[in-house]
Amino acid sequence: MKRRVIIDCDPGIDDSMAIMLALRSEEIELAGITLTAGNCPLESCFSNVKKVLHHMGCPDIPVCLGADRPLKVPFVNAKPVHGCDGLGGSDLPEVPGAPDIRTALDFLKEELGKGGCSVIALGPMTNLAQLIMESPESFDAIEELVSMGGSFKSHGNISPVAEFNYWCDPDAAALVYDHLAKSGGHITMIGLDVTRRIVLTPSLLSLMERLNPREGAFIRKITGSYFDFHWKSERLIGCIVNDPLAVAYFLDHGMCRGIEAYTAVARDGICRGQCVVDEKAYYHRQANAAVMTDTDAARFFRLFFRRVLGASEADLDLIDRCLMAE
Ligand code: RIB
Ligand code: CA
After folding, report:
1. Does the structure show a pLDDT above 90 at 71?
2. pTM of the entire predicted model
3. How remote is the CA of residue 52 from the centroid of ligand 1, in Å?
4. Which of 142, 242, 253, 241 is nearest to 191 (CA)?
5. Which helix (H) or strand (E) holds 281?
6. Ligand 1, atom nearest to 10 Cα
7. Of all helices (H) and strands (E), which one includes residue 130?
């Protein structure tokens, strides 16, 4: 049965790949995309998501503009990672079209108010925090909430201890986790502990191009600067594609394993954006989060290749060979 989903994101290279996976998965009815500033300014996010939807042949998906800055801290983008245009410096042709007349908040309230709608959050959680402040009952109506963000035992990617989405707007992340703790709600945190295992390598990218030249070429185009960033910053031959794992987990809960724990997010200071995961229950608080600690990269890439690239079962065995060759 199809499940209605809203993707809240900051496209963004890996956000774009996540949207591609969602659009090619028949279990998902993508009700709409809400945008937040993060990897790049809001207007770039809009420009980029239109390019992705155009490429995927899905121009009619509602795209709603959300927060253009964090709740409190100054906005800091991730252009050094995602390129000057937020899409790997691919400079794809602009796609005409205006955003939906509804703001992200209006759209979230309207869709969640119908019931039976889930949210996959792939960027800073400013829109969701504003929703809690404005209409907590709408937020509480979320059927399943999955967030790419945070880090438990893995080192940060924007500070020694923080992951970018939760660091970019720490007050929003803290507000969401605090609200969930008070309301008895629940979030699945797909953090760096698991997304670091999802590395698009040169051989996997070449395999993409061999199996599906059109999609492979598009992914190569948008990941160009992403490979360079990972080499310069982590001496990694490949690029970590964080966001698609959140969609893959939504599709297949066997994709990741983790722990249930009370989790909070540090708002400021040297630990800004750090996740405090109470694994040993020192605080005797009810778990508000499933914190993912393990995943299977081959299982992820098999799903991605099948859905986005149309790979046959026979082709999928080549993925294992690519992964083992690294
Ligand atoms: O830290 C990785 C996350 O921050 C990803 O969602 C990436 O797109 C950026 O938003
Ligand atoms: Ca993102």
Report:
1. yes
2. 0.98
3. 17
4. 242
5. none
6. 10
7. helix 126-134
